[in-house]
Amino acid sequence: MPVTTDLVATYRGPRRVVRRLLAMGPREDRALVMLIAACVVVFVAQWPRLAREAHLTGQELNPLLGASLLAWIFIAPLILYALALMSHGIARVLRGKGSAFGARIALFWAFLAASPLILLHGLVAGFVGPGLELQGVGLLWLLVFLWFWVSGLIEAEWGGA
Questions:
Q1: 31: buried, middle or exposed (CB in 10 Å: 19+, 13-18, 0-12)?
Q2: I want to staple 108 with a disulfide (CB 3.0 to 4.6 A). Which of 21, 34, 114, 123 is the partner?
């Protein structure tokens, strides 16, 4: 299915989507593309906030964008791979039967599927700035991301996928 169809379907039933993704077989290239796509979306979501910060403080925008690029495109994927491995280890201790690949798909897909909310968060950070609105959108993103991740991890480790 197209990614956009899977994104919408994830908001209705994240376990079904992860089950379908895992049924395609273990292909690390697919997992890596999901992760990089999600990291690119988060990097783009930072632009309004960074532009606001540069304008308000008188800083140059390019160094801020460069630092964000380094963080989200080069460092964050390594951290997320480590987080997926740790979640798989914890699941194994809790008698999970899945694979490390399944744990990666669960995390990376949750990150990508929640990306529309991170784009909204970036817009609120750039146009509204710090405040209750930004915290509310951030909390909403966190809750949706955790829902997708935990649901996907349950499917990958205990769902027989």
A1: buried
A2: 34
Q: Are 105 and 80 in contact (CB under 8 A)?
A: no
pLDDT along the chain (161 residues), means of 10: 82 92 91 95 96 94 96 96 96 92 96 95 94 96 97 88 42
Gyration radius (Cα) of the chain, Å:
17
- Residue 75 Cα distances to 1, 5, 57, 121, angstroms: 30, 29, 26, 21
Cα separation of 78 and 7, whole Å?
24
**Burial of residue 121, with CB atoms counted within 10 A of its CB: 0-12 exposed, 13-18 middle, 19 or more buried:** buried
